[in-house]
Amino acid sequence: MIHKITIELALEALEDRGVTIEEIMDLVYELQSTYVPDLTKEMCRPHVMKVLAKREVQNALLTGIELDRLAEQGKLSSPLQEIVQSDEGLYGIDEIVALSIVNIYGSIGLTNFGYVDKIKPGILGKLNKHKGGKCHTFLDDIVGAIAAAASSRLAHSREGAGVRD
């Protein structure tokens, strides 16, 4: 029997890995506050939730988290184990998974993702440090991609361009 993935399952997976919706909202706020003068952090919530409601986002999130967990447990085959565990810079598959999320709401998501992936603000910096034996090779990019997609969704909605749900 196939287990149905839900937004609740995605939220639980994020929380289990130490990521809150509020931290993702903070990233969206940082990305968009310059362009939306009246923006509040709470205004970012529905955009984050809409992105997380997408099945392809849930699939990417759960897949990335599972690969990170397997790396923590040393259960990946070599050389993949060492590559994922060390978050090797030239690996790039973690970014490819994240790009599947970024592309949902248009090209602005790509520039937003490039920015947060480079500077690693907020929760992304914490995840990228891999403290306490945790591996977040996929999760830091996926969280950045969720924020970038939510930022893009917010930007499109403010421009009156209409946003796909």
UniProtKB/TrEMBL annotation:
Which InterPro entries does the record cross-reference, listed alphabetically?
A: PgpA-like_sf, Put_PGPase, YutG/PgpA
* Enzyme category, top tier: hydrolase
GO process terms (BP): lipid metabolic process
Q: Which residues form the YutG/PgpA domain?
A: 45-156
Q: Does the keyword Hydrolase apply?
A: yes
Supply the alphabetized keyword list: Hydrolase
- EC numbers listed for it are 3.1.3.27
GO-annotated molecular function: phosphatidylglycerophosphatase activity
Tell me yes or no: is Isomerase among this UniProt entry's keywords.
no
By what name is this protein known? Phosphatidylglycerophosphatase A
